[in-house]
Design a protein that fits this description.
The relative contact order is 0.14. This protein is of the alpha/beta class and 254 residues long. It is globular. Strand 2 and strand 3 form a beta hairpin. A 7-stranded mixed sheet has the order 8-5-4-3-2-1-16. It has a 7-stranded mixed sheet with strand order 9-10-11-12-13-14-15, covered by helices on one side. Strands 6-7 form a two-stranded antiparallel sheet. The protein has one domain: Ribonuclease Z/Hydroxyacylglutathione hydrolase-like (Metallo-beta-lactamase, Chain A), CATH 3.60.15. The N and C termini lie close together (5 Å). Helix 7 packs parallel to helix 8.
Length: 254
């Protein structure tokens, strides 16, 4: 299983892209602005999109993706998410006002897109690639994802504040090779981080102390203009874990 980072920033500007991970050629985990860098023929190969939560920086490419490639495909794109997330997409995005409802185009029996509800703890098996929704703690209902090839595994936290249930998954994961965890703000913005349920470096360090596993740790969702400062503080507070900044086009093999 190959995982490629299409976007990992908390904003846009220049080369920055918001969150999306491409699993092999046919699966997205979140669908931020980085999806738009794929060629049209690569976009048409995407069959499954796993959404962590409904915020725009994680879902904004879904409407454009479906609209761009629907005529090139013979089957609908499947959008996975917890019930609350799917309800938000139905009500506020694919609602004929902000964007057409592609679950009804061309018609309800032959749609270009379908929703599939998953629950925290539930695993979707895609030809031996196991993707499990895991607990997260954010301002809207949210999950992260545990991705397991059978040989190695990766945990992607999604957007989350401290949540012991997340560490239960991390510590129980077999063959855990990588942890991708958010730290959106620097320590000087801790009040904003707390209000918006994001991590900041000193908080991340205290959370990592709950981890018994020893994966490689990568930091995602850094806010534009503060990446260098935030990573400096991450390494000051969590240096023994040797966290590294996640980068666009970085690849992980599981």
């Amino acid at each position: 299983m190959r995982i490629r980072v299409l976007g990992c920033s908390g904003g846009i500007g220049g080369s920055l892209r918001t969150t999306s991970l491409l699993v092999d050629d046919d699966v997205l985990i979140d669908a931020g602005t980085g999806v738009g860098d794929l060629a049209l023929e690569n976009l048409a190969k995407i069959d499954h999109i796993f959404v962590s939560h409904s915020h725009l920086d994680h879902v904004c490419s879904i409407p454009f993706l479906v609209d761009s490639v629907c005529w090139m495909r013979g089957s609908p794109i499947v959008v996975y998410g917890i019930a609350e997330t799917l309800d938000i997409l139905r009500t506020h995005l694919f609602n004929w006002k902000l964007w057409p409802d592609f679950t009804q185009i061309p018609d309800g029996d032959h749609p270009f897109m379908i929703y599939r509800e998953i629950k925290p703890g539930e695993t979707v098996d895609l030809n031996g690639r196991r993707i499990t929704a895991i607990p997260a703690n954010h301002t809207v209902p949210a999950v992260g994802y545990f991705v397991d090839s059978g040989r190695a595994s990766l945990v992607y936290s999604g957007d989350t504040a401290p949540h012991d249930a997340l560490w239960d998954v991390v510590n129980g994961a077999k063959n855990l090779k990588y942890l991708i965890i958010e730290t959106a703000f620097s320590n000087k913005e801790k009040d904003i981080a707390i209000a918006s349920k994001h991590m900041y470096p000193s908080l991340l360090a205290s959370e990592l102390e709950k981890m018994r596993a020893k994966p490689e740790v990568f930091i995602t969702h850094l806010k534009p203009g503060e990446g260098a400062l935030t990573m400096k503080e991450v390494n000051e507070h969590a240096g023994r874990w040797r966290p590294r900044m996640l980068e666009n086009n970085q690849e992980f093999l599981l």
